[in-house]
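During the reporting period the student researcher (J.K.) took over the structure-prediction task from the postdoctoral fellow and processed the backlog of single-chain submissions. One of the processed entries is reproduced below for the supervisory committee.
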Amino acid sequence: MNQLTSRESEADQPGDAALPGTLSEAQYAELVAFRRDLHMHPELGNQEFRTTAALKARLERAGLKPRVLAIGTGLVCDIGVPEGQAPAVPLLALRADIDGLPIPDAKTECPYRSTVPDRAHACGHDVHTAVVLGAGLVLAELDRQGLLPRPVRLIFQPAEEVLPGGATDCVECGVLDGVGRIIAVHCDPRVDAGRVGLRAGAVTSACDRLEVALDGPGGHTARPHLTTDLVTAAARVVTDVPALVARRVDSRSGLAVTWGRIEAGHVANVIPQHAELSGTVRCLDLETWRQAPDVVHAAIDEVATVHRAKSEINYVRGVPPVVNDPVTTELLRRSMVARRGVDAVEGTEQSLGGEDFSWYLEHVPGAMARLGVRKPGERAVRDLHQGDFDVDEQAIAVGVELFTAAALLDVAE
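J.K. obtained the following structure tokens:
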């Protein structure tokens, strides 16, 4: 159920004249060039040294004082906070993720395709980074003019694609100290550039990783009754565990176990002694996600025991669902309407994908918007995590407008 509301009223019409701080053509061109440079030089999680250095240099040229995180990559930068002083009111944080993916770039004709073998910005993190950088540059200028009503913190986070996500390291580094609200965008290839998708409540799903090892004495396939038929045991875990799990929680929570790998045996007439399975556990509901490890463990153990197999389970916590705070979601709606009008906002469904932005929301209220990146009128969908993924770069300007308007409209607590 989409909880986003959209009111047709005078307040829902574009109000650019009332809000300063839009990008100039030169600033937009610079951000496009910056994004393309990142796209050509993607770096994996916790290895984003070049990206971190580029961001630091550009922010310093703007007269800001970015701080590289203690973990070695990623950085934070405050705007509107006098040097050496604590912020007078809670900060509004703008978050970007900066890492790429370990897949090849398949855009053979693209002049800014990745120059790094088997590495690509195939999830739009280069766009997210350019958006937060651009918003920071615009807001820094507004602060110099005395037009920034609330201090802002830029967070450039490493390792979003690495479970349980670089957000946990960032929180430990103190990036949320003094923060009262946090916002972010994520590229959405199903939404046209110039628009954003919003939803109050859960907008992504929890995602954990599951690894299972099954062991038994093995034996001849002519005498399975004298040993543990490990292949059958593994097959029953694959088929029975998802069904058991689904019946032990509220079906509305969407708890689902899906297998991606199964390995057992080497020859046709030998029952193996070892089998391995791996997959994911996804869940739509935050409270059910908290119970998921115990539920999944119990189901696997039960099935393995019936087939006389010894089980060893490695349940790797990933990320909880991103649950958008209604107040912050409304702030983003008002911000987008103020810049581009009511037609620039649409509802969005809850995704089954995972996003470590959720870890920030365990500490402070916030929301993530779906940033449209599809060229208007284009029929083909270049999906996320695919080697041919690319965006309509007008989305960068839209994201900057969204964030700058949010910083100007937000009321300090």
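The committee noted the following: The chain has two domains: 10-203+321-409, 206-319.
J.K. will present the remaining backlog at the next meeting.
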